[in-house]
Amino acid sequence: MRRFLLFALVLGLVAAPIAWSQRRAFVLPNQPYDGRFTFVRLRYTQGYRLAWNADYPQMERNFMAILGDLSTLRLHKTTSNVHVLDDPALAHYPVAYLTEPGYWYPTDEEAAALRKWILKGGFLIVDDFYFERQWAVFDAAMKKVLPEGRIEPLDVSHPVFNTFFSIKSLDGMHHPATPSARAMYLGIHEDNDPSRRLQVVINYNNDIGDYMEWSGDGWYPVNLSNDAYKFATNYVVYGLTH
Fold first, then answer.
1. Dihedral through CA 165, CA 168, CA 171, CA 176, nearest 10?
2. Which residue intervals of the chain are DSSP H helices?
3. CA dist., res. 238 & res. 124, Å (int)
4. Are 41 and 82 in contact (CB under 8 A)?
5. pLDDT tens-digit series, residues 70-128
6. Element (H, E) at 186
7. What is the pTM of this model?
8. How many CA atoms, within 13 angstroms, populate the side-chain half-sphere of residue 33?
9. Residue 89: φ, ψ to 5°
């Protein structure tokens, strides 16, 4: 029995990381553009090579199922796209999601392409990072993308929190990895003017993607998963209407 338990323990320690990496390493074929809303995730090529696909693809599948039930959007429920930052096809899509930017180091070409996409009307959702070390990496990367952009806190009165759901409070959420990382919401506006279009929304000390990925498994309190869907829905609707 002791030998069996030891073997099982060793097998678990070896197999778990392998299964984890296999689960995260694959990329499904992209949905060809047809005018319907497609969830777009950005894949960065520099930095930790698997960080960009955290929660993929279950998060987007869960979110698109919810968004399809909530709205009258014509959307793809079971497929989503992954694009590198300088992929010309990104121009077809007005909203894109970037996760774990605490491991993101864009090349000059990627930064220039993402800047062009944003300035033409693209809306970038940044999610899943926490504490100062990851913030420093993200901040440096964002400065390459929008050198003149000023990151500022957003309050609950901002239109992005009132486009579909009327979100009453920005308190309560935290990064799933630690309750001490209390969520903050920040953004970059066009010409650094808060009265103009929000170009980038930033979920710092939070990970709405993880809450949505595991919303059907009971890992997290229902209210936090519900809030994640509310934020994500507002972000998409804002990006499509601004």
1. -20
2. 2-25, 58-70, 108-119, 131-145, 208-213, 222-241
3. 11
4. yes
5. 999 999 999 999 999 999 999 999 999 999 999 999 999 999 999 999 999 999 999 99
6. strand 184-189
7. 0.90
8. 10
9. -65, -20
